[in-house]
Amino acid sequence: MGHEVDVQERKGSGRDRPQMAETASSQTTVVIPASVPTVAVLGPHDEFLRIVERECDADLHVRGNEVTLSGTPAEMALAERVLDEMVTIVRTGQGLSAETVERVVQMLRTERSERPAEVLSANILSNRGRTIRPKTLNQKRYVDAIDKHTVVFGIGPAGTGKTYLAMAKAVQALQAKEVNRIILTRPAVEAGERLGFLPGTLSEKIDPYLRPLYDALHDMLDPETIPKLLTAGTIEVAPLAYMRGRTLNDAFIILDEAQNTSPEQMKMFLTRLGFGSKMVVTGDVTQVDLPGGTRSGLRIVQEILSGLPDVYFSWLTSHDVVRHKLVGQIVAAYDAFEADTDGTRPREQRGGR
Length: 353
Hints:
The chain has a six-stranded parallel β-sheet with strand order 9-8-10-11-7-12, with helices on both faces. Strands 1-2-4-3 form a four-stranded antiparallel β-sheet, covered by helices on one side. Strands 5-6 form a two-stranded antiparallel ribbon. It is α/β, with parallel strands linked by helices.
């Protein structure tokens, strides 16, 4: 795909991309195509432009549909590519946000394999004017893996979209009649709680564990259709224990919070796979709530299934957190703390580092 913006070197002739030396400061003009609303690219009060200026360490000045870039050649080249991707995204009709612009910069700094515009404009599901899309390259690879493989493991910290995107793919598959039903399950285990000690009926006991799955469904389907689908068995939300002894054909099956399965439970779940079905297993291996001494089935399953055809492991990181940006920073800080030593003593007590 060619570049959407027109780049002109101040001291050059013609429209060729400037050949810049890495040592000197340069100046380049980027022309936003007349067919693209300038304000949609630059943002209200040039908000998006200021983000590019900050993230790319370059000076940007606007006159009409021309953006003049000043700075080191490397940072100017990055800013030019960012503007190019922004124009492409606007042309898809998606629109930009401050978060999207920041993600474009992040992807261009760290990835070279795919254009950010292709990642951020890949639609999975639309409902009530809201479209669900991957927001990072790893998320897009995860979604693509679900299309290509029968069993996919999505492993990563909270907020990386591993369960939400799997559910969006399940609803998409149901609407496309690729499967006849969706089965959502998770182990009813949380820190310090057991079902037998909770008040209420069985339904009331298991509801807190399954509520996040219901909440995601309400984002993806019209609320009035969900009770009908649940009553008809087209969508089933149930604890993992309810899967025992069954063979699940023509279904899209999601196991959430899989870090809280034992190895025996994980094997039981995976062997429920029937013809015409897909399975997605999601979890965070750093958040195991199993009783002391019980191994997590998610932690050892890669060793067991590594190399099997049609099984794919997708690893998401703090860079893929799509909640408030502080969540990603918190996850990264915890990862760094735990990697520092054994995570049991304050940093200042470990040699003053």
